[in-house]
Structures are given as C-alpha cells and as structure tokens.
C-alpha cells in the first residue's frame, strides 16, 4: 500500500512539472516585437496572432473527445508535438530559415495555443483520478504552477542567451516535449485507486499544506532572485529546478506517516478544507435539507396570467431578506429576481444561458481575468513604447510570479472558512479591485515603478480569477455540468483577446500614423514602432473603465448569490 501511495505522489509531482512548463502562451510578449518586425505586420495584425493563441482555449473540448479514443499518455504527447510544430516553425520564421504567409503563421499560433488546453486536460484527469478525496486541493496546487511558466522560461532564456528573444520560441517548442518524456513513467505506473479512511484523507490534506508552503517559497524565489549575468542566471535556474524536484521527497513523508499522525495531526486539523466548496456529500445533504424545507413551505406560485412562477411572501424564510427591501428600485429587482435557491443545482447549457447570474459572472470574467491576459500579451509593446525595452523580461517575471500567488490565494478562503466564512463570489469581487487601480496607475505615470506595480497587481488579480473560476462555475451551476459550462464561460477569452487587443492595436497604430513613431532598422515592410506614453494612454483608460464595469458586475453577482452561500454553509455546519 505504501508503494501505491508513493506512486500517487509521483504523479502529482509530474503534474506540477507539466503545468509549470506548458504555460507557454504567457511569454508571447517576450518575442512578439521581433515576430512583428520579421513579418512586417501592423500592431492590429500582431493582435490577431495573440488572439489565435487564446482561441485555442475555445477548442479545449477536442482534448476531451480525444480521451474517449486514446490513452492519457498519447494525448499528452499529441499536445507536446502540437507545441513542437506550432512554436518550432515560428522560430524558423524569425531566423529567416523559412518564409510563410500570414495566415499560416495564424494557424501555427492557433495550434500552439491548443496544445496548452490539451496539457491542462491531462493534468485535470490525473488529479481527479488519483486524488478523489482531495481533488480540489490537487487541482488548486497544480493549476497554480501554470502561472510560473513565464518566469521559468525567462530564467531559461537568460541562462542560454540573454540578448536573444527568439530563444523563447525554441524553448516553448522543446521543453514541453522533454517534460512529457520525463513524466511518462509515473503516468504509465498509475496505482489503483482505493477509498481512503478519514485519517488518510486528513494526512493527505497535511501533505498538501506542506506542498503549498513549498510552492510559496518557489514563487518568492522566482520573484526576487534574478540576474542578467549568464553564469549567475544558470545557477539561479538550477535552483528553480531544484525547488521543482523537492516535492519528490513526499514519499519519504509518507513513510514517516505514523510520526506525523502522532505528533502533528493530533493538534492540527483541516476540517472542511477544499478548493471546491461543493463536494458530493455536502451537496447531497444540502439538497435533502432544501427538499424538507420545500415540503413545509410554498416556494412558488403561479399567477393567473400564466406568466410562470412568481415568488411568494413565504419565500422570505427560504432566501432570506436580502432581496425584499428594495423591490421598487431597479437594483433591488436585479438582485432579488430569479435568485439561486441552492448551490450545486445542475444547469444544462440551454438553462445556463438564460440565467442572469451566468451573464454577470461572464461579464465579470470578461472584464477581469481576460483583460489581464490581454495586458500580458501586450507587455512587450507597452515596455517598448514607454522606453523600457530592457524591462520586458522583468515585467514578464512580475506578471508570472504574481499570477502564481493569485492562483495560490484562490484556495485560501477554504482554509480559513471555519474562522471566517465569505461567499466565493465575494472573494471574486475583491480580487477584481486591483485591476482598475493598476490601469489608472500606469496611465497616470509611465515610470518604471508604476509599470512594475501595475503589472504585479494585474497578475495577482487575473491569477486569482483564473484559478477560482472552475470552483465558482461548479458551485453556481452544478459540479456534474462543470466541464461543458466552464468551456462556455471561457469563450470570453478569445472574444476578449480579439476585442481588447484590437482596441489597443488600433490606438497604437493611429498614434504611430499621427507621428508618435520611429522606424526600426529591423523592419523590412511598413511596420512602425510607436514611442511615447500616448501609444497606450487611451488604452489604459478604456481598460480601467471596463474593469470597473466588471467589478460592478461581480458585486451584483455576489449580492444575488450570497443567500445561497450562507444557507449552504449553515446546512454544512448542521451536517
């Protein structure tokens, strides 16, 4: 049995490695300026390439379809070769080894972006299959490491050639393939999954706490330890790899289980922890409780006009008093109308798109996490236009590291909910607050400090949203439908990438045409580089205003869903 447990933790470590080295879309800004110069394209056309990479996320369903007919390890290698082909050909284009038309480069970006979703599917399946009792903690931890990909690739690039930007494409092509080869043996030797006893579940939770502490150390290491010196950078990169290897010591922790149970677990408990608030047992009790309540009070009545169900006065007992007081106002009607009765109720796609809660959630994500992702795609041009080209790699590391911390923070509410409980949609609203502040800060001052602070805030905010989204989708619209519903939700990513990126690119090119530009000696066609604060000033203002709209949307979502969260927590405590 101990051998089986060791193999299970080996799989978790392999999943961490896969996530850490396959977030290749986050370093697009590192080489985008050189790609633009070689292709001789405008900023708008460059934005379309970034959109193509993000559009791959909308094709995530294809990986699930492939799993129906292919073993897991083969899906992983298909993803690796998709990235090898997509990024590898782009690398050859930048080196002028091959010359391809624009639409072919667009397809290569789409293929490379799709590879990321296939890797994510492999990681999700591994976590769910091997950690059924603590799958939320496994998912939260591994997904967080996807946020450090850009920082790791930045270290690797500096270690090989600090003056080259096209080296990122070479690394994007080969490192995921090498990671897949290293991870193959643990995946092939997956142990049988047996139900765990209560003590074993708590023991697993303790190990996850230790792994989260190690993850935090890794994040701080990548954030604060860096150098542009070639030899020093190689030592630092070696230290980062060592931190990723350290979780292999988990089997040793398992062998010391008796000591931990005797000395630590007796005084440290993690009751009720978990990344997903709605688990199967709690959800079943919640449904039974509400069924008993329904048998005692009337929840709906039907009007004589045949318009459908309307809320009756007796519903005050059921959904609380939050929606009663301001029925005459527009805001009161928006908050009180068609509220969720309970968490975890299954919503099919046709039911999902009819709910106001879903569109509030969609808009909050669209104006929060997605706008942060588009900002990261434009970091190269933003730094270049402000005269901080040498800071590009630093900004990429900042965004990556703080995105990582944001993802880790998304699990924190569950560890503290026994002492302080707050609806997860409320945490979502809080997470959106830094985004508009960051955009207005960067717009107000284009100096290095403001740019770094704004990038860190945007990374922290978007990282939290990316990691918490699966959980919120599961809680609001049902855990069994989360796969389909979440794929519907993330359609906002390619849409936002196109809309926000096009807005930024249009303003950029207009400013360049108006005279705020200089020609680069690397340009062979009519492409120009816009220089000065005006290149992105209007873009930052627009993005900041849109982020405020997303914040308002998230607050409305919180007010509408808070009664359901409070009832669920009360019922869970009773159980």
Low-confidence blocks of residues: 268-278, 291-328, 517-525
Q: Strand-residue fraction?
A: under 5%
| Arithmetic mean pLDDT | 78
* Coarse structural class: mainly alpha
Distance between the termini: 32 Å
Strand order of the largest sheet: 1-2
What helical percentage do the residues reach?
over 70%
Shape: globular
Q: How large, in whole angstroms, is the Cα Rg?
A: 25 Å
- How would a textbook summarize the main sheet? 2 strands, antiparallel
How many helical stretches? Answer: 28
Give the total of beta strands.
Answer: 4
Please summarize what this structure is:
This protein has 575 residues and is mainly α. It has helices spanning 2-21, 28-39, 43-55, 61-67, 72-94, 102-130, 135-145, 149-160, 167-188, 198-224, 230-245, 250-255, 257-263, 280-296, 316-319, 330-336, 349-352, 356-366, 369-377, 379-385, 392-409, 412-415, 424-432, 434-444, 448-477, 482-489, 492-513, 534-574, and strands spanning 300-302, 309-311, 517-518, 529-530.
Structure description:
The chain is globular. It is built from 28 helices and four strands. Helix content is 71%, strand content 2%. A hairpin with a 6-residue loop joins strand 1 and strand 2. The two termini are 32 Å apart. The strands form two sheets. It has a two-stranded antiparallel sheet with strand order 1-2. About 10% of the residues have low confidence. The chain is mainly alpha-helical and 575 residues long. Helix 7 runs antiparallel to helix 21 and helix 8 packs antiparallel against helix 21.
Which features does this protein show?
single chain; 575 residues; mainly alpha; two-stranded antiparallel ribbon; two-stranded antiparallel sheet; 28 helices; NFD4_C; transmembrane helix
């Amino acid at each position: 049995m101990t051998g089986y447990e060791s193999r299970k933790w080996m799989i978790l470590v392999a999943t961490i490695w896969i996530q850490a080295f396959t977030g290749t879309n986050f370093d697009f800004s590192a080489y985008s300026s050189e790609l633009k110069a070689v292709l001789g394209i405008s900023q708008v056309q460059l934005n379309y390439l970034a959109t193509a990479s993000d559009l791959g996320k909308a094709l995530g369903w294809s990986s699930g379809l492939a799993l129906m007919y292919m073993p897991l390890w083969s899906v992983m290698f298909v993803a690796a070769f998709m990235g090898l082909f997509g990024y590898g050909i782009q690398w050859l284009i930048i080196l002028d080894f091959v010359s391809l038309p624009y639409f072919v480069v667009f397809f290569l970006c789409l293929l490379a972006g799709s590879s990321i979703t296939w890797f994510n599917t492999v990681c999700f399946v591994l976590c769910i299959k091997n950690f059924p009792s603590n799958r939320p903690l496994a998912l939260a931890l591994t997904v967080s490491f996807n946020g450090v990909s850009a920082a790791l690739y930045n270290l690797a690039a500096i270690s090989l050639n600090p003056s080259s930007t096209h080296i990122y494409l070479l690394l994007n092509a080969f490192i995921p393939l090498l990671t897949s080869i290293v991870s193959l043996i643990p995946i092939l030797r997956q142990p049988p999954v047996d139900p765990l006893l209560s003590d074993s579940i708590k023991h697993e939770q303790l190990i996850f706490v230790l792994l989260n502490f190690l993850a935090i150390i890794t994040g701080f290491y990548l954030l604060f330890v860096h150098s542009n010196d070639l030899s020093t950078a190689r030592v630092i990169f070696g230290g980062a790899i060592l931190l990723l290897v350290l979780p292999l010591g988990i089997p040793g922790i398992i062998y010391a289980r008796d000591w931990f149970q005797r000395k630590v677990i007796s005084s440290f408990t993690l009751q009720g922890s978990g990344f997903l608030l709605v688990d199967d047992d709690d959800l079943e009790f919640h449904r039974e409780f509400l069924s008993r309540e329904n048998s005692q009070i009337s929840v709906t009545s039907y009007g004589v006009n045949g318009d459908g169900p309307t809320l009756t006065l007796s519903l005050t007992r059921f959904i609380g008093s939050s929606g009663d007081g301001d029925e005459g106002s527009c805001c009161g009607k928006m908050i009180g109308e068609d509220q969720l009765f309970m968490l975890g109720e299954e919503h099919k796609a046709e039911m999902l798109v009819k709910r106001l809660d879903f569109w509030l959630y969609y808009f909050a994500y669209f104006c929060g996490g997605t706008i942060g992702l588009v900002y990261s795609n434009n970091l190269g041009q933003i730094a270049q236009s402000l005269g901080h080209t040498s800071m590009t790699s630093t900004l990429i590391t900042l965004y990556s590291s703080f995105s990582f911390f944001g993802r880790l923070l998304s699990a924190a509410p569950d560890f503290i909910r026994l002492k302080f409980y707050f609806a997860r949609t409320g945490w979502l609203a809080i997470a959106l607050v830094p985004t508009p502040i960051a955009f207005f800060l960067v717009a107000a001052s284009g100096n290095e400090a403001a740019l770094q602070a704004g990038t860190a805030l945007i990374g922290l905010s978007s990282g939290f949203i990316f990691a918490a989204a699966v959980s919120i989708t599961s809680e609001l619209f049902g855990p069994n439908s989360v796969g389909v519903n979440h794929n519907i939700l993330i359609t906002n990513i390619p849409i936002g990438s196109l809309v926000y990126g096009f807005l930024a690119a249009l303003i950029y090119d207009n400013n360049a045409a108006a005279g705020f530009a200089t020609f680069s000696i690397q340009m062979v066609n009519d492409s120009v580089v816009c220089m000065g604060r005006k290149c992105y000033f209007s873009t930052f203002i627009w993005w900041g205003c849109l982020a405020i709209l997303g914040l308002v949307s998230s607050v409305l979502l919180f007010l509408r869903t808070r009664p359901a969260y409070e009832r669920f927590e009360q019922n869970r405590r009773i159980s």
